[in-house]
Design goal:
By secondary structure, this protein is an alpha/beta fold. It has three domains: 113 residues, P-loop containing nucleotide triphosphate hydrolases (Rossmann fold, 3-Layer(aba) Sandwich), CATH 3.40.50.300; 104 residues, no CATH class; 187 residues, Nucleotidyltransferase, domain 5, CATH 3.30.420. It is 48% helix and 13% strand. It is built from 23 helices and ten strands. Strand 4 and strand 5 form a beta hairpin. Helix 2 crosses helix 20 and helix 17 packs antiparallel against helix 19. The longest helix has 20 residues. It is globular and about 75 Å long. The chain starts with a strand and ends in a 32-residue tail after the last strand. The C terminus is likely disordered.
Amino acid sequence: ASIGVLVRDNRKAQRLSEQFERYNQDKPESERRPFMIIDEYKFFRRQEIKDIMAYFKLLMNPNDAVSAKRIIKRYVSGIGDARIRDIESPKNRSVGLKLTDFMDMPIFEAEPYAKLVAGLEVGEVVVYDVESTGTDTTQDRIIQIAAMRIDKDGNEIERFERFINPGKSVGTSQLVHGFTDAYLAEHGESPKVVLEAFKEFSNNRIIVGHNVNYDISILSHELARHNLGEPQFKAVYDTLDIFRRFYPTLENHKLGFLSKYFPINHTPTHNAMDDIIATGQLLIYAVRENIMPTTTDRMVAINQYKAAFTTIASQMATLRRKMHTDNPTELLAYIMNQMGVLDYYKSHGEMAKVEHIRDLYRIMESLDKEYEGTTGLARLNHILQLAALTAGEPQQMSKQSKIPIITVHQAKGSEFDHVFLAGMNQGTFPSFMSLREGNEDEEKRLFYVAITRPKQELVITYTNESQRGQGTAPSAFLDYMPRDVKLVERSM
């Protein structure tokens, strides 16, 4: 089970780390608790390591403009800040273009939305969604797959909806999707049977989803788990990405908000079938109102800029193909030797940074062994989680998993089975500074982030007195918690 210790700020994390170090000193090695703390000067904070992580992040999320920009600025010649600003100008954004579009080969073959528009004409577009036992694509399980093949007007041509008995409890995810263990035991089928059927249904078709990267990632891991190969899609489009491109100033781009904001006739409910009906209607709206009217202007802009990206786009396309067959260490070797990173540091006389990247290679090599039997995608995911959650000093790496002590800010986007939220005292969380400056609402949002990180259990602790022996009060935010929750007091 995964465990995370969350605190309000780095100072509290440092103090806790020191306490745990003293705790471990008096314990035999078998009884020590392997904690780790993020330190901004540590390994994964180094510029050259963050650059390598940018390649991996862009592999996992092709729309990651921050990572694309980081790669281009240092390792791609002939593309400077001025050209990047031109590509990201309001004029180009208004026709639905992003910098990341130039980081793969499809843009050199056809207009980015050509396959989508053509697919709608011939009924090859499948709108797709899954419900699952959680948000960890490598560990959680799909419980429902829903898909609908639609025509150019959004009308249903063919439907796919199957439930899966995941072989494990749905836990608290039931509160999101509403399906109980008992329901899935009765209505769920074997994962392999459903996955094979959906793979056939979606074969060589154009897949559309809202935040579809998640759905495809968890599907890929499920297929690999049952030795069913890779999904075979002709192309993939994401309505979350489409609406972020054409409507960047909206309050948010969640499916529920978009369904109310735009003139469609369906409300999503976190049932996968309901969600794809809403997604399909939003897709047709975007195609008619945004994508098709801007086709010519988009092609003019593409032809103006694409030549400068020929090499990096080809390299990234190769890297994406290798991602499905190679280990992360092999991907790193390709990035270093074939994508110009090693040559860059040689030409700049910065071989010490190359040594740090070799340290990263050794870390990844140990993880390859630790996660042997999992897919390359899953191992890449572990690398990115490691980069986000740990200081990652090479000499500290071992096969024993460590318990991260991290700030709530650093925990955004992460989940743990068990979370210990430490130091919930008035003046600490909310912080004294935020109370003085009237920023309590931001502290409330952070508190919400903290209490939604656990998948199974949340333990909140606070002190009765400060390090100086003065009395301290528990955080006023605890008043928002249900009264039947057991609060665990600790002296820190």
